[in-house]
Every structure is written in C-alpha cells, then in structure tokens.
Design goal:
alpha/beta, 515 residues, 7-stranded mixed sheet, 4-stranded mixed sheet
C-alpha cells in the first residue's frame, strides 16, 4: 500500500464542497513493480555486439588483476591463465559461467508479501547508499552516526516504493569491528524488507549470515536454499578485483546469497572518456566477477550492474544526472539484455544541497535507468554530493517522484467504466463541469495520486501557509514518520538470541574488516 504522510495544515480559503474533506486512502501496490516503459538503445545491435566482443578480448589478452590468492586458484582451476596477480580468462570460461547464472532470482524478505523477483522487466528501487555524511535542515551536515543509520532504515521501510534496503550511511560512531553487528541488528529491528550486507571479509560475512538466519528463524539448510540478502561488489576500475570484493563474490556465492556486481567507472578518470569505451570496460569487469561467482558455485544468484557517469573535466569531480550518465545507462541496459541477466543501475546527484540541480540530476539519471530497463535502481532517493551525503529532505522529495513512477507501472484502463459514457459524458451538458458527476463523485478520493510533499495550492493559499518550499515541507514529512513508535519486526525470543550472539562475538573481539 502507498503510505503518504500529509504534513500540511488544513487548506484555507475557497474550496469545493467535499473535495477537501478527509478521504479514503488511495490503494496501490508499490511492492511488486514491472517496468512499463519501452527500452531504448544508444548503440546499434552490431555496435553493442562489438563492445561485448571487445570485452571478451580484454579478458583474454589484457586480463584482470586479482589480488585474492583463493580467487586466482579458482580461476586457474576453471582453465584461466594466471601470471602472478594477472588472470587471463578465456571466452569459453565466461560463456560457461553465463550459462549457469540465473535469469530470475527470488529474493526473500522477512514478510513474504515483500518478496521480490529480480529479472529483466521487473523494477525495484533502493535509496541512496554508502555515504559518510548525513544532512537535514534541522541538524545540518554531519558525519553519519548510528542514529542516522537507524532513522534512514525507518524512513526507507516506511515508503513501500523502496523495496530493498540499502546501506544508507556509514555509522562512524560504531567501531568497524562491530559495525556489521549494529547494521544487521538495526535492519532486523526496524524493517522486514530485503536486507543488505556489506562484503568486508569472510568473518563479517559469516557473522551476518548467522544473524540473519537467527532473526528469520531458519535452519542452515533453509538459509542456504533461498536468497535472503544481497551485497554490492565494486570492482576497482580499471581491471582490478581487490581482496574483500573477490572474497565477497566467493562467500556470497557459496552461501547462496546474491551479489550485485557494480563497476564504478567514471568516464575520463578510471574509464575511457567515451560512453562506448567506459561501458566496454565496465562490461569486461562485470563478466570477470560474474564468472568468479559461477566458478565458486554454479547457479549462484548474481546481478549484472553498472554505475557509469562522467567527471567534470574542469575539476575532476564526479558528475551525475548528465546526458553521458543517461547514455551510459542505456548502453549498460543493452549489454545486460544481451546476457539476459537482471541488472542494477543508479540515479544520484552531485549537487551539494537539495535544490533544483539535485532534482534535475536525479530525475535525468532515474529516467536513464527506467528507459534502459534496469531491474534495480540504487541511489534513487536522497543521494547528494556524488555520494558523500544522504539527505533526509531529498529522500522525501525523491520518493514523491518514485511514487508517481510506481503509479505509472500500474497502467491505465479504458473500459466502459473508465470511459464513463453513462455516468459522466451523458450527465454533463455543453459548457458544464464534471465536479458533481456521479463518475467523479465515486472516484474523487481514489483516482489521483495524492502527494505527500508537493503543494498544488494557489499562491495566496501557499503564502498563508507560510510560503514553505518543498524542502521545508519535506522536513515535516520525515519528522512525522520518525515521531511514530517503531514497529517490532522480529519476535522477541529471536531478538534475544540475536543479541546474545552479538554479545558473545563482541566479547571475542568482533570481526575487523579485511582488505
């Protein structure tokens, strides 16, 4: 169900009878979305095939630098040529891996009604992720804390249009050897959506797998038989797979959990300056990482991914929501469709505050993902400064747009009931109006999406209300959500067992991240 928080005061001034009275909530399912938009391509089929062929050639002739010895041994056992830290992967190895990678992945949430099936044509949104800072209009920009992580978890849970949890911000006041305990416990306490786990070394991964198994009440066999969590794997472009990322691919594959492979390639910096060159590099790195998952465990759940945009050539700073970012998403979609795998793309903004630039960049990036046919869109709400901060207000204003996209996913019907000849068209004389028509009165509380932060009042009414802009109105929305009492999402006995596990492992020193 949609869940909008109306933080605006009651309308004043003229109003139509009945149209401003409390109305039944509009009901729509935002949990299981299908992308309704026809996909676009930026390159011809022949050009895309040439990029794929070049990526295979890169892996064969130029190779990938792989820092994890275990990963190099796995590649070698599959037939790859290994010279020191360089791994040269033949196309037959890649093709065998692609043959076993699943085309459809059932992701199991705490609440079965929130389960997701990731495949081409499906659509899921994630909020902004991985930022070292949080910001809002009340408390300003600050190093992210445990409180911020908890609040973002609660906000992300509140909005049904965000179907997957993300690692919103780094809680920097929690030690790194204990941070994975906090982030997993926070998710288990505050949401029943599909959770995220960082891949920061085998000990942390095994800890969080065990915590999730306890919270969900699963046996080891039941946990291994389903996909209950995911991680994001970033290659180190150009052509390097580091120790924690390679280990994460192996650990998640063997544990039956999902990796989303996402090279972060910025055109003109760690990738060629052209869209074609950057996506070819990203594609090669994806193929190498996907191949490792299938060598580790054939059939392991894995998503193709990309996050490719350009840099500002004046400053070297990352830029997002640009025309090149849009084109790169379209190109990545072509490559993913060629493979047939579910895939992840990203929106986002380089703006420093939640302003017009931030809205423009996020929307253009979002539409690039939508028209590219992305299965998962991360950084779709809240992301600022090219990932250095997540904004409470921007989370709300971006979700407003995502809600409207979700409404479009439902489509529109044009049967006799919708056309309304009997109770609308025939009821109104020339120059009349349809406000009081039976067709209107039956539907006026449910036909249109009701915004939670956008204000459609005229200038006079808006001024009487305090002349608040969208960011200020968004503050009231997130404050209202967080003022409500948190819901319990894990049974008390499981939480008690979970906390006992955390206490035991913490007393043993926890698990520092590995690199």
């Amino acid at each position: 169900m949609t869940d909008t928080v109306q933080a605006q005061p009651q309308r004043r001034g003229r109003k139509r009878r009945g149209l401003d009275t409390p109305a039944s909530r509009r009901k729509a399912d935002y949990r299981q979305l299908r992308n309704p938009f026809p996909v676009m391509s930026v390159f011809s089929d022949d050009e895309a095939a040439g990029m794929h062929e070049t990526a295979l050639r890169m892996l064969e002739e130029l190779g990938m630098k792989v820092l994890l010895p275990e990963a190099r041994r796995l590649y070698a056992a599959a037939g790859a040529r290994v010279e020191g830290e360089m791994v040269f992967i033949g196309r037959e190895i890649v093709e065998a891996a692609l043959a076993t990678a699943p085309r459809s992945i059932l992701c199991r949430a705490g609440d079965p009604s929130r389960n997701l099936t990731l495949e081409l044509g499906a659509l899921a949104f994630q909020p902004g992720a991985g930022a070292p800072h949080a910001t809002d209009l009340k408390r300003g920009r600050r190093p992210a804390s445990a409180r911020d992580f908890t609040e973002f978890t609660r906000l992300s849970h509140h909005f049904d249009v965000l179907q997957m949890m993300s690692p919103s911000v780094e809680p920097q006041d929690v030690p790194t050897n204990l941070r994975h305990y906090f982030t997993m416990l926070c998710q288990m306490e505050n949401t029943d959506k599909f959770p995220f786990i960082f891949a920061r070394g085998t000990p942390q991964t095994h800890d969080t797998f065990e915590m999730l198994r306890i919270a969900r009440g699963l046996s080891e066999a039941e946990f291994a038989a389903g996909v209950h969590a995911y991680t994001i794997i970033n290659t180190n472009s150009p052509r390097c797979l580091d120790i924690p990322m390679a280990q994460g691919l192996i650990d998640f594959a063997r544990g039956g959990q999902m990796s989303i492979v996402t090279p972060f390639t910025l055109m003109g910096a760690m990738a060629p300056i052209t869209v074609a060159g950057a996506i070819t590099l990203s594609h090669a790195e994806c193929l190498a990482a996907i191949t490792l998952t299938q060598i580790a465990k054939p059939g392991a759940p894995v998503c193709y991914g990309t996050f490719t945009s350009n840099v500002d050539m004046k400053s070297g700073a990352p830029a997002f929501g640009t025309s090149s970012h849009f084109q790169a998403s379209l190109a990545a979609g072509q490559m993913a469709r060629m493979l047939g795998l579910p895939w992840r793309s990203a929106a986002g903004s380089a703006s420093n505050i939640n302003d017009v630039q931030a809205a423009n960049e996020n929307q253009l990036g979002l539409w690039g993902c939508l028209l590219a046919g992305a299965t998962v869109i991360i950084h779709s709400a809240g992301w600022l400064e090219g990932g250095l901060s997540v904004s409470y207000e921007k989370l709300v204003t971006d979700v407003e747009v995502l809600n409207m996209v979700a409404e479009l996913c439902a489509g529109a019907k044009a049967g006799p009931d919708q056309i309304g000849f009997a109770d609308a068209l025939s009821q109104v004389a020339p120059t009349g109006h349809f406000f009081a028509a039976p067709h209107t009165m039956e539907r006026y509380t449910t036909e249109f999406y009701q915004p939670m932060v956008h204000d459609y009042a005229n200038f006079g009414t808006w001024t009487e209300r305090g002349a608040l802009d969208a960011s200020c109105r968004a503050t009231a929305v997130w404050e209202a959500i967080l003022s409500a009492d948190p819901q319990p999402f894990t049974p008390p006995d499981r939480l008690e067992t979970l906390r006992a596990f955390i206490d035991k492992r913490s007393a043993q020193g926890g698990a520092p991240p590995e690199s």
